[in-house]
What does this fold into?
Amino acid sequence: MLNQHTVTAEAEERRLMTHFSAPLNEQEKCSGKHATKEAGVAFFAPRKLSPTTINSKTANNTMPQATTMTATTTNFCKAVATQVEDATFKEKHNAKSAPLAMIAFAGEAVEKSDQSKGQFCF
It folds into this structure.
């Protein structure tokens, strides 16, 4: 005996099967009736940028130089391995669905980043 949901799902499946197996009507097809051959050639022709365009683009993208940061290197492998081996860390994150190593890596990355200044010290 089938329930109402199964009957409805099978009917929808049959309807979609006939819909997608039928060919497209002329109204549904893409048409180039308003596009000319010249427009197509102009659209797909390679474009060259003039030197003034290049200079204006680079001038707009200049940003003030960032202050010098001191970068410290972090060995994530050792830091993660140390946290994963720690019994209290395992107990604290035991119920989470993410792997312990990923939780440790995320915590280490957040700890090493200085988000208030937008600077990352990896």
Observations:
- The CA atoms of residues 36 and 46 lie 18 Å apart.
- The first helix runs from residue 4 to 21.
